[in-house]
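Re: the 348-residue chain
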Amino acid sequence: FPMMMHLWPIIAALLCSTALAQEEVCTSDDKSTAECDNKLETIRLGLEWFTNPDHLPLIVAQKHGIFASFGLDVQLIEPSDHWEAEEEILAGRLDVAVTEPLHLAQDAAKGKPVLGFSRFLHTDGGVLYDAGNGGITRPADMCGKTISYPGSPGPGGPAIVNTMVKADGKLDCDITSYKKHNGSFFHTDALQSNKADVATLIFWNFEIPEAKAKGMTDAAFFSLKEWGVPDFCQLVLMTTPSHFTKRKDVLRKLVLAMRRATGIVHQQPDLAREYYYQHVEKEEASETQQAVIDATFTATLPAFPNDNMMSTEYYEHLMGWLVETDQVDAKAGDEVSVSTYWTNEVSW
């Protein structure tokens, strides 16, 4: 028995090396790049917006060789314009896409074939306003104001703002009193050009530092989570149900690779910063843009959770709010089951 105790480290090492060989996982030490490339599973991953610090685990996993170590070739694709991700997946142009829980639930209620399977960012955010103007000091002050939001003139902007107004005690604000401006995602520009009084939806880690770098020194926001709105300031990965079934093992590797990259983000932030600055070519940016890159990176560092799962109760509450605010048809919202558009099967 004592002799066996001395042999255990050797036996364990042999078993470990055998298991790795059987998995045929490529690492940065592989001598043959061509041979390694032949083993990689390609994942075409569509971003929801231009590359920014919200995508840090993806960038770190790519730059640090983590994706390759899991046998993955993850291609990050920016949208040239707004796209319907599930259509891109069905057409074979994407495999996975980044979206927000809000849009996932809305698409599910419309009967679209969507399935979310991993949350990788959870930040704070809500409605942007300029505290320096003095016209808005609390949510109730937003009643009847002009709202800038990408889906204008749809119901989304007024639904968010009016929920906050009511949560602040003003129950008599007519939802039709709000004026609407479609400033796309250029929230700071909408306020600085006086085309809107408030803008939504903003992520504090990006829009607040950006607004301050552009001269809005008193940029502030009302947080969804503090004023009655479901907290959907999160990013998740989604695909179609059929694609998930076909590539479940590969998607599990994607989740684990991003989780390992998240560890590097938290434990080696300077290395993550180096990777990010290389990726976005910071040195080529203008002075103002460099300041935005610096500030948004620092603000985003704490926003990546280790837990990639989401609860059924969360999505039930979100869908209930969407129905209550007339953003989703009541019958459709009641009939769609969370299990049809969210799974924790690979995110545990």
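The radius of gyration is 23 Å.
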